[in-house]
């Protein structure tokens, strides 16, 4: 049987196909040896939308909001289910990071000796009614 | 030796010996020794250790002795915590420990600041190397050495160590030491961590390790010199005594062990404890996936001016080797205090492992020993002798966060975990440092222990806890404000009240921070400073789709005496920054906001200084957050209903907060669709987003993108190579302001008839 190793809350690697997959909707995202972000969608988020002003931006220079000219939030989501898989607080124009560069042959060897019983127990969702339990 | 021999025959072995002796005998100055300072691994086994291990290899005996010694270290720690005069001592900013004869920290106190475990061994190694055989100094039974200069070890000059050699039958068998964050040290600003320092000469006491105790007595002449060099002579005396007595207590426990089990058992225990921990770390690392994880954290100021200062991190694991590569991080600032010596960074990484990843490991130097750390020379994470480092916390904390963010991505898939996978904790010391003359006429300089209330990051199964603990200590108190107010002439008018909407959203949200409002009451000579980054750019990253915290400014209200207001018109006072700044309830007062690097500011009675602690990072997609948890956050005042509804897409009755679960499911499904609609494929996105250089409007420091060899120095046109140090001076913020105003005058046509 094929083994799928959960690598993050929302991503796993299928050791047989050597692909990154979405753990929520099973979408095949990208080659495991590459950057999973290349298979995702990106949104350039104004940080003020997530971190709202606590004090009046019309009156004050500093408001508890990150400065949108100094930092942006790159939101990466699954193209099939829309789950937000990763965020990156980025300097404007700075290339997104290849954040997880996996040595796939080493991963396969490591899990060949472990077997599927060792797969970490941590599921993707806790929404009631979705039929998932930890 | 190549350049020495150009143009002539190579010197013989005999000549080389002579040259070496000449150089050793005529050293002008024993400065910090890079051979000691750049190394955090264990010293090689000595002949004494080989012999002791051969004699006493039994693991049961060793475990028994280790427990006794551990108890002794913890007892010494308790003594310092209970008796120490420094506020830092009272909240556990302390380490006590037993060191091998070669100077490695073998067993450390379990609580307190584990960051110390990778840095306190350096001064002992300096003593071993330089004073042991130095006829004018020597190391004898009854001696004690003092040290604080971070360039010779420890984190920053506010930490002072007392170091005692332990002899048995005339042989040096180990060392004991006690280290405390003392606070005041005679620097240009009170409190020991000046952000205004522009060179090491502004940083106060600079004690290279020297002998200050003989026959277990503190030498009065040297003590007087030290007291004369700082603002708190009482503190200097009291804590030197406290540290000395804590060391003597640990010494007593060691002597009991020597009596029952002998020197070989002690030496074998110290050595094998370290070797076993080192081997276990290698084994644990080997269970991680082979991978490189990249992240960066931005420091948004030097504490003097806002700028974009990159801490760049690639963490690589291969086999049993773990390597932190921080190359590409910002160049050091020649005249700013936020640089760190390399040891401080390694200390915080050690803290990461001992506190957040493997908290079951015995405390000591060994856990970090096999982990490699690479940096550029003269960079903000590995600064030179000539660069100030009194605010190194800014760099070691952001370095820690880079490590914490990267490690989480290794741990998720690892079957063997010792803690839950953890989003980054808040990492800035959002507190008030204070100083001046108290209501009792005493000169004081120190800080509010509220820095220990950093919000915790969320974990893979639950929300982060609020105002939990500082990242640099496992267990630390935020202090009893009412007790503090007996000694200091100011009040915290609002304290421990969560700052609403200063959030870090996620499936599990970050733990939040609280508001602090202070105002001076009973002194005309009292002031505050704040030393934190993160008023423009969050100093952490979120995890697995979760968000980081927002940003945290300093707000001031001047031209008011709030004590008069509370006496005469108490209904005007407000209990949140939000209300005071937005409603401006005090007529005629001036309301301003600032970044969190406020240099020492003399305050007036009743003027308000207001800040907030920060939130730890969120974990996971916020649309997966349990709607019940969202409403609970509203009820607890963490978040306003409007923000909660807009971000989390929870549908509830605004009056009763009753949740409509079905409508919530639908709203969330719609939002997932909306995400897909507004987002673009990666390849298309980077075409519009990626730039070849940092933007011209940002004062950017560090590498850009994949090219880690080129370090930008404040503008897209000014660079240095990572391995080629260059000075990096910042202009005085007042000169910058004057230039701006002069330009405006010129633009307005004001004649420039000033004589030049
Ligand atoms: Zn999906």
TrEMBL record, chain B:
The Gene Ontology biological process annotation of the record reads: glutathione metabolic process
Q: Out of the domains of life, which is the source?
A: Bacteria
| Ranges for domain Hydantoinase B/oxoprolinase | 59-621
Pfam families recorded for this chain? Answer: Hydantoinase_B
Q: Which GO terms describe its cellular component?
A: cytosol
Q: Name one GO molecular function term.
A: 5-oxoprolinase (ATP-hydrolyzing) activity
Q: What is this protein called?
A: Acetone carboxylase subunit alpha
